[in-house]
Amino acid sequence: MALLLVSGLIVSLTVFRLCGDRRRRLLKQSWAAAFLDALGIEVEADLTHCVPGVLLVANHISWVDILVINAAFPAAFVSKEEVRHWPVIGWLAEKNDTVFLRRGSRGHARLVNAEIAALLAAGKCVAVFPEGTTTDGRSLLHFHAALLQPALAAGRPVLPAAISYWELNGERSLAPRYDGDISLGECTAAILKRPRIIARLVTTPLRGLRGEDRKQVAAEAREAIALAAALPLVSNPPDISAGLPGEQRSGDHPTGNPSQAPADWS
């Protein structure tokens, strides 16, 4: 894994500056797949409903979710502004089309919406985790509909995608969970203790194609993901922040009690 991190830095410093979008997507995809293989995670992806230029919305369990998405369908991610200043991870995120959102600033939000719309118009996939926090993978929280607005305003579809992790015996795996007080090291150690984990990414039919408002699309996407991952629907408190991939419950450092994965650092 250390060698893969170093190679990611080298590639971002060199090859990424020289190659086009298609080559960059392939590099991101192969790097994510290699990292998952080093963790002992095998990806099973159903990409039936994938098309270029979609806003992918997924449930959020672990920092590994980002690797699973990139290994199957490379994407840019939306993250809070603080992630940009994280050592190594922030730099890699910035070099990999991450969209940074400064919370509490309406003016900046408009700029971010325009940036997301431009990525979608260019045929790129942008991914968000609209629950606003990670779970242990056994339930699905409320979706923050505002994160879907850039795609709907730009006339681009929303692609609900369900992520789940499974043991070799067919039971749901809790090893990748990255919620509560679980640290990055504890999460990684739990994954490495398993002989093999199956990560399933299942896409569902596109939403937002008939002029629906964001609340309706968010509700439909949540129900589709719950059905695809066999998850019950529960409610999270209304004051939980708006589903940013880098959100944390305490502190802004990637090693300190995170409740969400870092931004797209692959």
Give an overview in words.
The protein has 266 residues and is of the alpha/beta class. The chain has one domain. The protein is built from 9 helices and 7 strands. Strands 1-7-6-2-5-3-4 form a 7-stranded mixed beta sheet, sandwiched between helices. Helix 5 (89-95) links the parallel strand 3 and strand 4. The radius of gyration is 17 Å and the shape is globular. It starts with a helix and ends in a 37-residue tail after the last helix.
Structural descriptors:
alpha/beta, 266 residues, 7 strands, disordered C terminus, 9 helices, single chain, 36% helix, 14% strand, seven-stranded mixed β-sheet, globular
Task: Give a brief description.
This protein has 266 residues and is of the alpha/beta class. It is built from nine helices and seven strands; from the N terminus they run H-H-H-E-E-H-E-H-E-H-E-H-E-H-E-H.
